[in-house]
């Protein structure tokens, strides 16, 4: 097999996809690809400047040049914008839906609205599957500079899509991970009007199906003696009324019930609350009352009734944590206390986001802003390195990732 035939076999698909996604014209793309390989055939043996290790890059450059010449003849508007289309993010986010014509048209229109250098970066890596090194060579920049460019390009593209659906989404301090989750969880062609409600429903459905194995997960993942640490932050007595927001299967409730007058177990999952009810019967916890409620919705029926509230590993499941914090605060008596325990923010891409984890943890400064906006006096707010949540690293079998506890202890003003 000749060199050119070998190159044709290996690179035809990539070159064709590249040209087609520039022109959106199958016949024109086929002609340009044929011309590209004809030029390659004529030059590969006589042009010493063509490094055989970079044939694919050379062919892409030639195909790009020929595409521009074609557009100069037939479509000035398309030439100016260099419309990029098709399966951006197909492997990671949009999956099989990317093949639909409506979605291709939608993505093309969104890509047109970001900077041309961002379009190029996304096209080269996410569309064509080129390496950072190949892409950097094509754009005549360093590999490090290209990595930075691609990160900005992806963020700009995702933000443009989210803004199209709901401009209010971008008022939340969403990292790139949360932005990508919104595109992973929902069909772009049928995006929900009420995202907050849809996320709440997804989380509720997940925990309704997870209640039987949650305690095993908790034992494997949560820090040892976490309940004791949380209880050590507050002063409880036999007249105290306590609320456990996001009670789950009742691990904290079992420890706190003997110490206080009454405990409200609040959870959005009916199945989780059934587990708490069984716990009541098995341990004789007569002072526990279960309440089915979404903590981010209206808790006015509990207004001013709680001395101490606990929220453990709850708010990273909630679309708008500030709303939830305000609702929990509403239930407290004047001078009542709220303890929030959750994940510290991590940018490690160590686990696949499913339909129950929306936020990748929180930075202390962001949680501080929310607490202050909820008119809570902060007694303690810190990342506690003595307590870690331990998750399986889904990329490396047998490896674990430790995420520090973020703890907040507050008082209602």
From TrEMBL:
A GO molecular-function annotation: DNA-binding transcription factor activity
GO biological process, one term: methylation
CDD domains, per database record: AdoMet_MTases
Alphabetically ordered keywords of this record: Methyltransferase, Transferase
Domain Methyltransferase type: 244-340
Protein name per Swiss-Prot or TrEMBL: Methyltransferase
Organism classification: Bacteria, Bacillati, Bacillota, Bacilli, Bacillales
